Amino acid sequence: MNILKRAKARTPKFFRVLRTIGLALAAAGGTLLAAPVALPAAITTLAGYLTVAGTVAGAVSQVAVEDEESGSDEVP
Prior knowledge:
This is Holin. The chain is mainly alpha-helical.
């Protein structure tokens, strides 16, 4: 299965929830990074980590698909 088919295939419920959480983390981190006021270095660093973690969680969750034969979940 190539990456395009995998991305378009049905995603299990757990990974849909995880993808939503990842997108929320990435959005929160991006908002903090783009804030028009100067923030402390610790908050800026945390925002960078939130953005990366959210993006990775969203990407991995998107390509998890259900196994058509056994009904189990398969992660790349």
